[in-house]
Amino acid sequence: MRIFALAVLAVTAFASAPSFAQNAAGQTYINGGYNHFQNKTSDTGTLNGRVGYQFTPNFAVEGEGGIGVNDDKVNGVTVKTRGTLGAFAVASAPVAERLSLIGRAGYVHRWAEAKAAGVKVKDDDGSFALGVGGQYMLDDANGIRLDYTRYTEGKGANGYTASFVRKF
Question: Which CATH number applies to 2-18+25-167: 2.30.29.220, 2.60.40.10, 2.40.160.20, 3.40.50.150?
Fold first, then answer.
């Protein structure tokens, strides 16, 4: 966890460096993709969407939501993430003309359920989240983003996201 915290701090520190990527300030973006949630007992997934606003080349805010699409079966119990909703502050640091490192911190609410033998248990919980990743722009408007997010809920969970980015 210490290495993860240092990585987030490093990305945030780089965010104060001058930008040489083609990120315009005052720009809206969306991205959509798949988020794989993993904890010690299960692996589930959501189709994920984000809407963000980039205030400066190095700082943005984004909201995200997901709909559960991938269940897991653990000892006869079906585990499913029903949905997620979150908000993040995002720092980005350009490392090449079209490549940026990303650090993000925020809060996510997750709805989940477990079913077995006709009994359903629902979980409705929130979590602070820290993430790191990278974004590669294919052109001025379209790109690909990969990121890792650590959720603090319960004993913690990991999220791995791959998404398509569209800037306006």
Answer: 2.40.160.20
Alpha carbon 165 to chain centroid, angstroms:
13
Cβ atoms within 10 Å, residue 145: 20
pLDDT confidence band for 155 (50 / 70 / 90): confident
CA distance 60 to 138: 20
Cα–Cα distance between 87 and 160 in angstroms, integer? 17
| Spatial separation of the C-alpha atoms in residues 83 and 124, rounded to whole Å | 10
What pTM was estimated for this model as a whole? 0.81
Contacting residues for 9 by C-beta, under 8 A, at least 6 apart = none
Mean pLDDT of the chain: 87
